[in-house]
Amino acid sequence: MSDSAGGGESGGAAGAGAGQDSEADNEPPQQVPPLLPEGGSLDAVEISEEGPPPSAKRPRMSEEDQGLGQVVEPVEMREEMPAEAGFLQENPAPPAQSGLLQCEEEGQRGNEGTATEEGEGCHQNGDGEHDAALEGAMKPEEEHNGNRSADSPSDGQHLGLDFTQTPQMLTGSWTEYSNLPENYLKGCKWAPDGSCILTNSADNVLRVYNLPPEIYSYNWDLLPEMSPVLRMAEGDTVYDYCWYPKMNSLEPDTCFLASSSRDNPVHVWDAFYGEVRASFRPYNHLDELTAAHSLCFSPDGAQLYCGFDKMVRVFYTERPGRDCEERPTVVKKQGQSGIISCFGFSPCQSVYACGSYSRCAGLYSCQDGTLLALLPTRHHGGLTHLLFSPDGNYLYTGGRKDPEILCWDLREPGKVVFSLKRNVSTNQRIYFDLDQSGRYLLSGDTEGVVSVWDTQTAPPDGNEKLLQPQLRLQAYWDCTNGISIHPFMPLLATSSGQRQFPWPADSEGDSASDTEGGAAVMSQQETRQDNALTLWWAGPLCPAAEGSHDRDTEATEA
Questions:
Q1: Which helix (H) or strand (E) covers residue 216, if one does?
Q2: Cα four-point dihedral sign 117, 119, 120, 123
Q3: C-beta atoms surrounding 200 within 10 Å
Q4: DSSP sequence for 258-318
Q5: Which phi and psi angles does 385 have, rounded to 5°?
Q6: What is the pLDDT confidence band of residue 178, given thresholds at 50, 70 and 90?
Q7: CA pair distance 518, 52, nearest whole angstrom
Q8: How many H-runs (helices) and E-runs (strands) does the chain carry?
């Protein structure tokens, strides 16, 4: 194994010195069969007002941190939850080998999907050339780039998310981000097979953490602080990163991820050894190397979509280099302007969505990049993240300096079904995530609060309204910028931190006091910075954990 990142076809210097952690011992990302709790049920329809369950030991927590993990303004559910959703089955399906969402329909035959009555109803109810194109594209097609994968999760698989009680903090990584000042995180993403998690931070290093094996055995009191098994250093600010969707830790050839950074080509990193496996080199019209602002693999992993200013470039995963297909988003001064900042692929149709910093989103055909529909400009800031619902009927979009997440009905493009309020007061990319059933949507905000919305409580008539959160959790004192739901376990991963700016002295008297103290005035935000990766348990508690909770409660009362 090499101690430094090997060069790809180009741009290998960007990964130089990005060797594997000395503690990794050549370990691949672990894949342990999940031990799922039994008997978990969501009979209660109100959020528990009791304190949160005990969390794993966190050495850095001080007395002022005791408010973390508390429920903020619990909201009662207005309608009863379906009994079959939100709990684990007794005989769950084995973990999926990829992160693909599968569209379960009648008449599905392997990888060749046929149109059904349910699929035929998924189209735009409108007029015009784009309307007709979208109507055809929103139907399941036979040539859908392998979206209907045999590796996709079965329809009987449930996450077991239980938000009638406060998620329990298990463990995390915070010492790793305290070695450098203001080394705040910029998001986290579970691997498609759920074996490990990927983070990005201000030091331009991508880190891979294995899922602690103690979680499977519920030995949560013994959970140590997590340490990365891989560190992959980019040459400059990381714009975006994503996993290969067919990633399976049992097949080393599929274990890789892509990242894009300023003034560098797109790098493909080996998730076993932390070396650059290949490079994709996009060039602009002046034949100058240009960096991609966003990245996303196609659902079958055969193509890598890269976002630029008024341009999408499509590379073939098996053919690194500079050859690519260019798909302009503005043709004859018509279309989606601005930098393409985020991507999303429909799980059921051959359609992908692009969000841009021009505050709008567009729907495109996967075959040739034809614009199918351009959604109205409703956001106050540029789009930073978007997600399709598992059935492909809805699109969720969120922007920077924008307090709303909007839910669009793609059967009637332009129609907003409901909106979700969160506090986003900076330009930072604040991620949100959906569980595989499409029921729960989770997002952090710049105040450190994680909000959970139950989309099934939306009014059936589809009248636009503000949907209230089911649960609000104070996860950090600082910004909660990343959140990712585990593919098949009731586990949440969150990341925190943001750029801090010191407050200048307000008067000459303050300056004098600074001189006497020998230090500059530090802002309140700096003293409360909270840069960490944290894992949370959001499922039913096992008897051992509940017993530990009872003992801790008795000790507190004594």
A1: helix 214-217
A2: positive
A3: 27
A4: EEEETTSPEEEEETTT--EEEEE--B-TTS-B---SEEEE-TTSSEEEEEEBTEEEEEETT
A5: -160, 145
A6: confident
A7: 41
A8: 6, 32
For residue 323, give the 3-state DSSP assignment: coil
Q: Give, in order, the Cα–Cα distances in Å from 138 to each of 153, 302, 356.
A: 22, 21, 22
Residue 302 to residue 244: CA distance in whole angstroms: 9
Residues facing residue 365 across a β-bridge: 351
* Tokens found for residue 200: 């990005």
Three-class DSSP category at 205: strand
Q: What is the pLDDT of residues 79-121, one digit of tens each?
A: 433 333 333 333 333 333 333 333 334 334 334 433 333 333 3
Tokens (6 digits) for 249: 């830790």
The span from the CA of 422 to the CA of 20, in Å, is 38
Instruction: Report d(CA 152, CA 136) in Å as an integer.
Output: 24
Q: Choose between 164 and 104: higher pLDDT.
A: 164
Contact predicate 231/206, CB 8 Å: yes
Phi-psi map region of 450: left, alpha, beta (phi>0 left; psi -120 to 50 alpha): beta
| Nearest of 477, 483, 521 to residue 497 by alpha carbon | 477
Q: Model confidence over 412-440: pLDDT tens digits?
A: 888 899 999 999 998 899 999 999 999 99
DSSP state for residue 557 in the 8-state scheme? H
The sign of the CA dihedral 469, 474, 475, 478 is: positive
- Provide the edge-to-edge strand list for the sheet that holds 361-365: 340-345, 351-356, 361-365, 371-374
Instruction: End-to-end CA distance of the chain: give it in Å, rounded.
Output: 55
- Among 43, 256, 283, smallest CA distance to 165 is for 43
Q: What is the rounded CA–CA span in Å between residue 12 and residue 222?
A: 40
442: enclosing H helix or E strand:
strand 440-443
The tokens of 142 are what?
């036979």
Site of tokens 């929103």: 138
In degrees and rounded to multiples of 5, residue 351 shows phi and psi of -140, 140
The residues that bridge with 354 in the sheet, in sequence order, are 343, 362
Q: Which long-range contacts (CB under 8 A, 24 or more apart) does 375-381 make?
A: 375/408, 375/413, 375/414, 376/414, 378/404, 378/406, 378/416, 379/404, 379/406, 380/404, 381/424, 381/427
DSSP assigned state of 531: -
Neighbours of 143 (CB within 10 A): 12
Under a CB-based contact definition with an 8 Å cutoff, are residues 444 and 452 in contact? no
Q: What 3-state DSSP class applies to 410?
A: coil
Query: Angle at the Cα of 70 (from 67 to 75), degrees rounded to 5?
Result: 140
Q: Answer for the pair 327, 312: CB distance below 8 angstroms, yes or no.
A: yes
Q: Mind listing the pLDDT tens digit for each residue in 23-57?
A: 334 444 444 434 334 443 333 333 333 444 444 44
- In the block, residue with structure tokens 């894949």: 31
Q: Which amino acid is at 36?
A: L
